[in-house]
């Protein structure tokens, strides 16, 4: 009887998060169409990103339920192979490879490292677990070989968070901390664009970010202030930005997802982007997977959010699909009892009471 009640409660939890996700992604797609109709923009990029996230999430849920260890391990290997074979990852639906491929490379490697760590956290056998930890470290090394310092930093950060997650029993505070990190990075990006930082700090960041990127951010913020309600229309930043027009070739993007949404889709677009990230954290919070797996996936997706705040990562379909895939893998409920890795806090997925910080639905 207890097991049946626990299964019903878990099904209700997943239904709530799934319905929330459908509503958020549907609103993102609808708002892009509305703003495009208002200003003659091109919503195809946003629609493709929404479709990629949804398809990746569904695939992750199915694969994670069938193969909770093998599926994320295979995803990590696939991401590593893709990055090594195609270091200049091209975005969709564009044909020519524009600037910003370095950010996409770092994003794919980060997602791959996170998938390997999730697999390691789920592996019951020490030999398999050690191999998966080694794969995650190897992905960070691949970033160094490819010359991506950002990838090395983010992959090592994900690996450290995954190792520390084994000692955490309550996921709520951890996920709240990750949300705060994403908010701080986004706020710092906005402060740089608005020239609101002290002179010394602003100069140091400008040296790291390059004047061209900061010029794009300031153009995006200026366009957002001009029409905060609807923005200038999706896909129109390149036409209206003087900084983007002054460089050839240009991908026509401000290299910051929040600022791009603000410029092209207004305040509502920014709120929908934030809602999409909060939905992922919400789904992880209510997931039936062990807390170390959930926190590892959350740390990886937070690292991706940071990359998207200061770069062009989310303009690449591969990255959007990979983010959805990792979220799906981390929220899937494996068929049968999930084996617990050594050192993992014991949590039985049938009875919601041991979770403490997660509602029973």
Characterise the protein shown here.
The chain has 361 residues and is an all-alpha fold. Helices cover 71% and strands 0% of the residues. The chain has 14 helices and no strands. α13 runs antiparallel to α14. The chain is globular and about 55 Å long. It starts with a helix and ends in a 30-residue tail after the last helix.
The span between the termini is: 18 Å
What structural class is derived from the secondary structure elements? mainly alpha
> Strand count, sense and closure of the main sheet?
none
Find the count of extended strands (DSSP E, 2+ residues). 0
Query: What is the residue-mean pLDDT, rounded to a whole number?
Result: 84
Helix segment count? 14
Say what oligomer this is: single chain
Shape: globular
Our estimate of the beta-strand percent is: under 5%
Helix content bin: over 70%
Unreliable parts:
1-6, 90-100, 345-361
Order of helices and strands: HHHHHHHHHHHHHH
The radius of gyration computed from the alpha-carbon positions, rounded to a whole number of angstroms, is 20 Å
What key attributes describe this structure?
about 350 residues, mainly alpha, about 0% strand, globular, disordered C terminus
Topology:
Blueprint lengths: L1 H38 L4 H23 L3 H16 L15 H22 L3 H20 L3 H17 L5 H23 L5 H11 L1 H16 L10 H4 L1 H4 L11 H29 L5 H20 L6 H15 L30
Helix pairs in contact: 1-2, 1-12, 2-14, 3-4, 3-5, 3-14, 4-5, 4-6, 4-13, 4-14, 5-6, 6-13, 7-9, 7-12, 7-13, 9-12, 12-13, 13-14
Briefly say what this structure is.
This protein has 361 residues and is mainly α.
């Amino acid at each position: 009887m207890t097991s049946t009640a626990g299964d019903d409660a878990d099904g209700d939890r997943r239904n709530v998060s799934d319905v929330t996700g459908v509503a958020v992604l549907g609103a993102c797609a609808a708002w892009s169409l509305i703003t495009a109709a208002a200003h003659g923009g091109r919503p195809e990029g946003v629609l493709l990103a929404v479709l990629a996230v949804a398809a990746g999430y569904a695939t992750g849920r199915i694969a994670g339920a069938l193969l909770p260890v093998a599926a994320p391990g295979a995803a990590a290997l696939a991401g590593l192979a893709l990055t090594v074979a195609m270091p200049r990852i091209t975005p969709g639906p564009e044909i020519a490879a524009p600037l910003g491929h370095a950010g996409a490379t770092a994003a794919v490697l980060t997602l791959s490292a996170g998938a390997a760590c999730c697999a390691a956290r789920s592996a019951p056998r020490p030999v398999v677990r050690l191999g998966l930890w080694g794969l995650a470290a190897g992905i960070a090394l691949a970033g160094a070989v490819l010359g991506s310092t950002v990838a090395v930093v983010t992959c090592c950060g994900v690996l450290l968070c995954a190792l520390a997650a084994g000692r955490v029993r309550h996921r709520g505070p951890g996920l709240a901390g990750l949300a705060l990190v994403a908010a701080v990075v986004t706020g710092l990006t906005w402060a740089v664009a608005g020239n609101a930082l002290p002179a010394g700090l602003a100069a140091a960041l400008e040296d790291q970010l390059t004047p061209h990127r900061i010029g794009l951010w300031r153009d995006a913020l200026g366009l957002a202030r001009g029409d905060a309600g609807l923005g200038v229309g999706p896909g129109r930043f390149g036409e209206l930005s003087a900084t983007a027009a002054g460089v050839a070739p240009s991908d026509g993007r401000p290299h910051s997802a929040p600022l791009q949404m603000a410029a092209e889709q207004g305040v509502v677009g920014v709120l929908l982007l934030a809602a999409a990230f909060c939905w992922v954290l919400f789904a992880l919070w209510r997931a039936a997977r062990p807390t170390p797996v959930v926190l590892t996936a959350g740390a990886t997706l937070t690292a991706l959010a940071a990359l998207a705040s200061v770069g062009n990562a989310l303009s690449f379909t591969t990255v959007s699909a990979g983010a959805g895939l990792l979220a799906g893998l981390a929220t899937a409920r494996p068929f049968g009892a999930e084996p617990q890795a050594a050192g993992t806090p014991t949590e039985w997925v049938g009875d919601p009471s041991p979770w403490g910080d997660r509602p029973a639905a």
